[in-house]
Amino acid sequence: MEIILIRHTSVDVLPGTCYGQTDVPLKPTFEQEAAVTSENLKTYLPFDKVYTSPLSRCTRLAAYCGYPDAQREPRIMELNFGDWEMKTFTQINDSRLQEWFDDYLHVPATNGESFAMQYERISQFLNELKAMPYHRVAVFAHGGVLICSQIYAGLLKPEEAFTALTPYGGIISINI
């Protein structure tokens, strides 16, 4: 099965902000960015099924690309930063922050998730998807979800996770 993963467009938050599962606004350039993504997505048509994260930065892009009724899937939401949500890294006054920087794969954000926890929930979604009779599926999601999906497909190693972040509005294809 081919899965086409589409990252949402640019968000309108301060650089360095932990916005994971917070429903944040998109930049005023949304229309221009979405038009490029929509045009690039035509290369992959048609889709047997379309999924989207329930966060508006993904549902809005899905709708712009012609999929307003894409199935909302909470398991493909971004990493839950817990107490750190909507704070910049310089604003976080938590002794666990350095622990997280040293081992984000296994250490969860305070009252949030670790990368391993996010990977587990995305793997559950992909395992279920593999059992479906689809040939090509579109998934509108987040940078962390695209990374987890590439690890799942054997294209990346966990240690390479954040060196391979897909740009906003970017599209990648994996086979599972």
Structure summarized in a few sentences:
The protein is α/β, with parallel strands linked by helices and 176 residues long. The chain has five helices and five strands.
Q: Your description of this structure?
A:
This protein has 176 residues and is an alpha/beta fold. It has a single domain (2-175), classed as Phosphoglycerate mutase-like (Rossmann fold, 3-Layer(aba) Sandwich). It is 31% helix and 13% strand. The protein has 5 helices and 5 strands; from the N terminus they run βαβαβααβαβ. The protein has helices at 30-41, 56-64, 96-102, 115-130, 143-152; strands spanning 2-7, 49-52, 71-72, 136-141, 171-175. A 5-stranded mixed β-sheet has the order 3-2-4-1-5. α2 (56-64) links the parallel β2 and β3 (71-72). The longest helix is centred in the C-terminal third of the chain and has 16 residues, at 115-130. The termini are close together.
Characteristic key phrases:
single chain, 176 residues, alpha/beta, Rossmann fold, five-stranded mixed beta sheet, 5 helices, 5 strands, 13% strand
What is the averaged pLDDT score? Answer: 96
**What would the principal axes of the Cα set say about the shape?**
globular
- SSE string: EHEHEHHEHE
Q: CATH-wise, what's the superfamily?
A: Phosphoglycerate mutase-like
